Amino acid sequence: MYEQDIAPTLDQYAPTAADRIAVEPCSLEAPAPQEDCANWFEHDSIARYVLDHQGNILRANGAARLLTAAGVLGSGGVFICPSHRNRAEFDVLIARLADDRQTNGRMLFRAGDDAWCLLDLATLPGLDARVFATARPARSISAEAIEPLRAVFGLTRAETSVLSHLTSGEAPKDIGRKMDMSIHTVRAHLRAICMRMGVKGINGALRLSFQLAN
């Protein structure tokens, strides 16, 4: 699905001082030199991008280029491949950012069968035609961390446990084995979870859980 070659121009991207301020404001009393900004951007462990309003990559750091090399994000200089299942959602979000209908947003990106990334996008006043993006793995949600979701959506203890296992990438049959219940009972819990959370299907439950808990 993904192109494996890194766009040659990605290696030439170097952030400006404005890019550095946009994602982590520099002190007004002691602004960081542009060289320091470039070093921070390039070597930060979080994958960081500067995009235009069409979703093309203007700049990308080292961690971001690793995602491109793995075929996850950024193939051909485009943040999300046009044929990817999340592209339509991304287009809606970036259009809202471009039109100043919102200044930031988050989406869940499916990077594989059981691998998810959280993508955070933001704009800043005075920095037109730029969208600042970060990508990081969505962490599995422990039973303790998922407790607020149980309270908000009225999940039972069993449903909460099933959802926690689900966010760890476990299949329903594996959840049933660990919780000592039949696959039919697990599926009944999953249907109840989706109904209580107001989503369609397991992916919808995962998407909302990761967005709220990460």
Lay out the secondary structure:
Elements: H1 17-23, H2 34-43, E1 47-51, E2 57-60, H3 62-69, H4 87-98, E3 104-110, E4 116-122, E5 131-137, H5 147-153, H6 157-167, H7 172-179, H8 183-197, H9 201-213
Antiparallel strand pairs: 1-2, 1-5, 3-4, 4-5
Key attributes of the depicted protein:
Arc Repressor Mutant, subunit A, elongated, disordered N terminus, 2 domains, alpha+beta, 5 strands, 5-stranded antiparallel beta sheet, Beta-Lactamase
The chain-level structural class is: alpha+beta
C-alpha end-to-end distance: 27 Å
Mean pLDDT: 81
Report the principal-axis shape. elongated
Identify the CATH architecture of the largest domain: 2-Layer Sandwich
Number of helices: 9
- Which value, in Å, is the CA radius of gyration? 20 Å
Largest β sheet strand count, sense and barrel closure: 5 strands, antiparallel
- Helix content class: 40-55%
CATH superfamily of the largest domain: PAS domain
Strand order of the largest sheet: 2-1-5-4-3
The count of DSSP E runs of length 2 or more, i.e. the number of strands, is 5
SSE series = HHEEHHEEEHHHHH
Characterise this structure.
By secondary structure, the protein is of the alpha+beta class. 43% of the residues lie in helices and 14% in strands. A five-stranded antiparallel sheet has the order 2-1-5-4-3, with helices on both faces. The longest helix is centred in the C-terminal third of the chain and has 15 residues. 32% of the residues are buried.
